[in-house]
Specification:
The protein has about 450 residues and is of the alpha/beta class. The chain has 15 helices and 13 strands. The strands form three sheets. The protein has an eight-stranded parallel β-barrel, surrounded by four helices. The structure holds beta-D-fucopyranose (FCB).
Length: about 450
């Protein structure tokens, strides 16, 4: 039986997923193509040519998946809404069948006692918007606000809090700078307008949500940055990387200005994309909560590539996930206390909106899936979270990534992050040992808090 931790009253337990990674049904009920459909069809883009065309078939099996969530006793479910289901071409009136799917999902969640926490953009941009420049085009930010209004008007009576963007850092770097995610552009630093336009989209959408009395969050991928040595050069490299990865998408929202990117040769106008009034708009709607997606710390050394002011250095001597990501639970405590120290009173309450690990899980001869490495990962990170709370950080919830094994972007179906195993041939769901562990942990907390 997992031991309950000392967490604040009302602490919320959840799981997270994203539309393109689980829904499938990409051609159904009027959904338009997204950049991920296009990218996954490109030979060599995704490992073994996998695509999200079927994924976990959640679009048809969502009732079964909500029942799995109910079995966990969750407080909340973070999922994303596929923009191309709502606006197949990224503009114009809502597609009624697209809205109806999320309407059914929200009602199913509420019936199961689970609060829906939707993300409006988790990387599946309508292809038609990409054809007009994607997030490199300022117009996409305005389209995002219109889409937000359509969805909020339909679901806002039952959905109290909303996440605008998922990991704009990863979307910009993988999608626009390096080309390893959709839309597959390799623009290096010329990708920076995609940062500003996503943030502008956040600001515009946040105003739309707030006008309707709804709570606003963003889910940022954050990492504690550790210099590889105490040399001045490594420390300067770490400062530069921290500005790009952590500050670029958080400072404008919480502080109303961009961090110093001069180490990259970039001025405060981010490649000419910032206009008068933009930063005011980005910061105008205070966040009700900061979503933090944490997987691992980052170790940074002096550059090896003349085009960049940093190089990533390996973290040695720690366990690694199937994805080869280092497992450093205390990095979460370090990150959370670091955020508190950096932003002080400007830091809103934090919710961990993603944290988890991939393991090469397969059912054993008796059909059960034993995943002790995942249980150890989750337990270690929750200890670190509780340590940060004990040090005074206001953390309100923990949403693990993920409910189901799913389409892990460029890795296809090769990385299994779920509490529930999915056989992608038969769509059979098998709760892993970690599912039972998480359910028991949630129960133990509830029992403690109700005493
Ligand atoms: C995060 C993404 C999420 C998932 C996890 C493993 O960067 O937000 O969709 O792929 O990584």
């Amino acid at each position: 039986m997992p031991q309950p931790l000392d967490l604040p009253q009302g602490f919320r337990w959840g799981v997270s997923t994203a539309a393109y990674q689980i829904e499938g049904a990409v051609d159904e009920d009027g959904r338009g193509p997204s950049i991920w459909d296009t990218f996954a069809a490109r030979p060599g883009a995704v490992r073994d040519g996998h695509t999200g065309a079927v994924a976990c078939d959640h679009y048809h099996r969502y009732r079964e998946d909500v029942a799995l969530m109910k079995g966990l006793g969750l407080d909340g479910y973070r999922f994303s809404i596929a923009w191309p289901r709502i606006q197949p071409t990224g503009a114009g009136p809502a597609n009624p069948a697209g809205l109806a799917f999320y309407d059914r999902l929200v009602d199913g969640l509420l019936e199961a006692g689970i609060t829906p926490l939707p993300t409006l953009f988790h990387w599946d941009l309508p292809q038609a918007l990409e054809d007009g420049g994607g997030w490199l085009a300022r117009d996409t930010a305005y389209r995002f606000a219109e889409y937000t209004a359509l969805v909020a008007d339909r679901l806002g009576d039952r959905v109290p809090a909303w996440i605008t963007l998922n990991e704009p850092f990863v979307h910009m770097v993988y999608g626009y700078a390096m080309g390893i995610h959709a839309p597959g552009r390799a623009l290096m630093l010329d990708a920076l307008p995609a940062a500003h336009h996503q943030l502008l989209g956040h600001g515009l959408a946040a105003a739309v949500l707030r006008e309707r009395g709804l709570d606003v969050m963003i889910a940022n991928n954050l990492t504690p940055v550790r210099p590889a040595s105490s040399s001045e050069a490594d420390q300067a490299a770490a400062t530069a990387y921290d500005a790009l990865h952590n500050r670029l998408f958080t400072d404008p929202i919480l502080l109303g200005h961009y961090p110093d990117l001069s180490a990259f040769g970039v001025g405060p106008d981010l490649g000419g994309s910032v206009r008068d009034g933009d930063l005011k708009l980005i910061a105008a709607t205070p966040l009700d909560g900061l979503g933090v997606n944490y997987y691992n710390p980052t170790r940074i050394a002096t550059p090896t590539d003349p085009g960049l002011p940093f190089a990533e250095a390996p973290i040695e001597g720690v366990p690694r996930t199937a994805f080869d990501w280092p497992v450093v639970p205390d990095g979460l405590r370090e990150l959370l206390t670091g955020l508190r120290d950096r932003y002080g009173a400007a830091l809103p309450p934090v919710t961990i909106t993603e944290n988890g690990c991939s393991v090469a899980d397969e059912p054993g001869p008796d059909g059960t899936v034993s995943d002790p490495d995942r249980i150890a990962y989750l337990a270690g990170h929750l200890d670190a979270l509780a340590a940060a709370v004990a040090e005074g950080v206001d953390v309100r919830g923990y949403f693990t990534w993920s409910l189901l094994d799913n389409f892990e972007w460029a890795e296809g179906y090769h990385q299994r992050f779920g509490l529930v195993h999915v056989d992608f041939e038969t769509q059979r769901r098998t709760p892993k040992a970690s599912y039972g562990w998480y359910r028991d942990l949630i129960r133990a907390h509830r029992a403690l808090q109700e005493r």
